[in-house]
From TrEMBL:
SUPFAM superfamilies referenced in this protein's UniProt entry, alphabetically: N-terminal nucleophile aminohydrolases (Ntn hydrolases)
Domain of life: Eukaryota
Protein name from the UniProt record: Proteasome beta subunit C-terminal domain-containing protein
InterPro entries assigned: Ntn_hydrolases_N (IPR029055), Proteasome_bsu_C (IPR024689)
Domain (Proteasome beta subunit C-terminal): residue spans on this chain: 55-89
């Protein structure tokens, strides 16, 4: 079971480090096979571990990083209008999810 937890945690960590918007917590759920009459899933067989690990701990700021307006000089300013040559709107039809299995 511990080997399985680490395998899943490694996969989640890979997502945390390779996707900038994924956060930093590694939460896992262990579902054990239990046979209870007439039940397909027994919530008592699930163990939610939150957080299992914190993959990317944020550091603390050592100072104030706010700058007053006008601190950085503007050397030049140029405003160019955006000219739209053509615009195409494409309708995408929703696809139903395959639930046959």
């Amino acid at each position: 079971e511990e080997e399985g937890k680490e395998l899943v945690a490694d996969a989640i960590r890979a997502g945390v480090f390779n996707d900038l918007g994924s956060g930093n917590n590694v939460d896992i759920c262990v579902i054990r096979n239990t046979e209870i009459k007439g039940a397909t899933f027994d919530p008592r067989a699930a163990d939610y571990i939150r957080p299992y690990d914190i993959a990317n701990v944020k550091g603390e700021r050592t100072g104030n990083y706010r700058y007053k307006r006008g601190t950085t000089a503007i050397l030049s300013k140029s405003v160019r209008p955006i000219i739209i040559e053509s615009e195409t709107v494409r309708r995408i039809e929703p696809e139903s999810m395959d639930t046959s299995s």
